[in-house]
Structure formats: C-alpha cells, structure tokens
C-alpha cells in the first residue's frame, strides 16, 4: 500500500493531489455539519432520552477537538455547571486540535497545557498568545507531573483535567494529587478490548519507539475505570471515535448522570479496525509485549 501511494504521488501532479485533499476535507466537514444538525434535531424533538450512551453520541460535535469531544464536554458542564473554569491538559501537540481549545478560545477558560515535543510546544505558545493559557514544554512522567502543575500555580479544585500522552496515561493519572478535577477526560486504548491491563510504566515511553504499529500504549477502558473509582470518579461515557473516556467526580453525579460499565460505553477505534482488523487481530500484534494486570 505504501508503494502504491508513493507511485501515485509521483504520477499525479501535486496541485491535483492538493485539490483532491481539499475536496476530501471539505466533504468530511459537510458530513460533520450534517450530522450535527441531525443530532440537534433529534435532541430537540425527542422529549427525553433515557439512554445515556445515545445522549452522549447525539451531543458530539467538533470545533477544535479531534473528534466529538467538544460537544460532550459542553454537554457534561451544561448539566453539572462550572466552578473555576480552569483546566489542565497534556499531550496537546501544537494545541490547535485539543479538548480544551474551545473552552479557552471561545468561553474564556484559563489553564495549563503541557507538551513534550519542543517544536509543538513552541507552536502552541504562538497559537495561544494573548489567551489566559500557559503552555509548558516538558516530557511528563509520574515523578514530575505534580511539580509541573504546582509550579504553574494550579491547585485544588479545577473543572477539567485531560490526560492524553499515548503511553503512561494510567500511571500519570494515578499519581496526580495536587489538583481535584471535577471532570476527567482520559484516552484509552481500544486495541486492548475488555481486558483490564495497562502498559508497564517506563519513564521515557514513546509510542512508536515501543512498537512500530502504534498499538502498544496506554491502558484499557476497564483499567482506567478501576483507577477512576479508586480516585473517586465515575465513568459516564465515551466518544464514539473510540479514543476518550469521560469521568465525573462521584460527589457531583447526583441525579444528573448514571455510572456506566466499560463494556456498555466502549467504542473501538474505527481507524485501527480499518487498518489492522478487529480487536482480536489488533491485540494479537502486541500480545507478547509487557502489560500489567489491573485488579
């Protein structure tokens, strides 16, 4: 497949390829808008949705997030309200497509963004210039995460924490204790299916260096759910793209949300399915690597 793509690039003039890519992107955006309009109509015309998984799906929309996370975050806070409008997010790349961008750019939230890649962090600083956002270039480990947050004068209760570093996500979230987020968004690895496992902790973990196919990283949804309960958080849903899980602090649930099982709200990563096959085939490619069972 890679050879075919390379051949196509050599044969077809670059302006034609660029026009095709722009058209493809435009069509994708139109599809997204159509889906958002359809979902909005359904939400307005169905008096009450008792299916929490469906409610999350219908509330998905993308403004700056990678997929539908912007809509889900908006939905959650529309029900539980906000307090500080402060956030911490790490693993943002250049910051143009992350889960807190919409909050700071359009709704006046402030917070801390952390990125391990120096070039990405520089671009993010430029992008958020003039916004109430601090961008820090630092490679996160479980040993430095609390110090980084504290040094940037964020402590106590904040509204949102987003964990997305494609590696030691489980171990870093487990270690965080200097803030008390009301909502936590954590990436899970759908290739691990319903197993309750995480990758072994490695301070210098880098996803593609650990395994070239990129399937070996992070933790399963079941493992993240167990960690969430240990820290006082309840799983309430996932985005349908199969990337992120949403947790709310237990004391805020009340009658607004129900606790969901990982089996009920799980979605697989559709991109991985297209590329590698079903979940069994995906896990077969990494099953001989090191994992830790989470009880």
Descriptive account of the structure:
The longest helix has 32 residues, at 14-45. It is globular, with a radius of gyration of 19 Å. By secondary structure, the chain is an alpha/beta fold. The N and C termini lie far apart (41 Å). 42% of the residues lie in helices and 17% in strands. The chain has 2 domains: 1-47; 51-293, Rossmann fold, CATH 3.40.50.150.
Give a quick set of tags describing it.
9 strands; single chain; 13 helices; 2 domains; Rossmann fold; 295 residues
Number of helices: 13
Main beta-sheet strand count, sense and barrel state: 7 strands, mixed
CATH architecture of the largest domain: 3-Layer(aba) Sandwich
CATH class of the largest domain: Alpha Beta
Supply the CATH superfamily name of the largest domain. Answer: Vaccinia Virus protein VP39
- Structural domain tally: 2
| Oligomeric state of shown chains | single chain
Q: What's the total number of strands?
A: 9
Please state the CA-atom Rg, rounded to the nearest Å: 19 Å
Residue ranges: pLDDT <50 for 5 or more in a row?
Answer: none
CATH topology term of the largest domain: Rossmann fold
Write the H/E string, N to C: HHHHEHEHEHEHEEHHEEHHHE
Strand content: 15-25%
Terminal residue distance = 41 Å
Helix content: 40-55%
Q: Which geometry do the CA atoms define?
A: globular
Query: Which structural category fits the helices and strands?
Result: alpha/beta
For the largest sheet, list the strands in their spatial order: 3-2-1-4-5-8-7
What is the average of the pLDDT values? 90
């Amino acid at each position: 497949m890679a050879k075919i793509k390379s051949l196509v690039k050599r044969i077809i003039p670059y302006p034609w390829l660029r026009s095709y890519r722009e058209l493809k992107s435009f069509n994708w955006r139109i599809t997204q808008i159509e889906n958002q309009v359809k979902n909005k109509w359904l939400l307005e015309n169905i008096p009450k949705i008792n299916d929490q998984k469906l409610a999350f799906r219908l509330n998905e929309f993308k403004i700056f997030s990678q997929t539908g996370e912007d809509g889900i975050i908006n939905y959650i806070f529309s029900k539980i309200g906000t307090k500080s409008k402060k956030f911490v997010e790490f693993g943002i790349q250049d910051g143009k497509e992350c889960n807190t961008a919409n909050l700071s750019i359009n709704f006046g939230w402030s917070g801390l963004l952390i990125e391990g890649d120096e070039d990405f962090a520089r671009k993010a600083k430029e992008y958020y210039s003039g916004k109430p956002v601090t961008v820090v270039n630092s490679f996160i480990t479980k040993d430095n995460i609390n110090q980084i947050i504290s040094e940037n004068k964020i402590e106590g209760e904040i509204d949102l924490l987003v964990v997305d570093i494609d590696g030691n996500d489980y171990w870093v979230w487990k270690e965080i204790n200097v803030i008390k987020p009301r909502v936590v968004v954590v990436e899970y690895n759908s290739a691990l299916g319903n197993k309750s496992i995480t990758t072994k902790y490695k301070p210098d973990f880098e996803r593609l260096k650990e395994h070239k196919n990129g399937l070996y990283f992070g933790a399963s949804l079941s493992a993240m759910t167990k960690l969430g309960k240990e820290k006082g958080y309840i799983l309430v849903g996932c985005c349908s793209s199969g990337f992120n899980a949403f947790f709310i602090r237990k004391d805020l649930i009340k009658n607004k949300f129900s606790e969901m099982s990982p089996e009920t709200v799980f979605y697989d990563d559709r991109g991985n399915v297209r590329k590698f096959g079903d979940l069994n085939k995906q896990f077969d490619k990494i099953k001989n690597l090191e994992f830790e069972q989470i009880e």
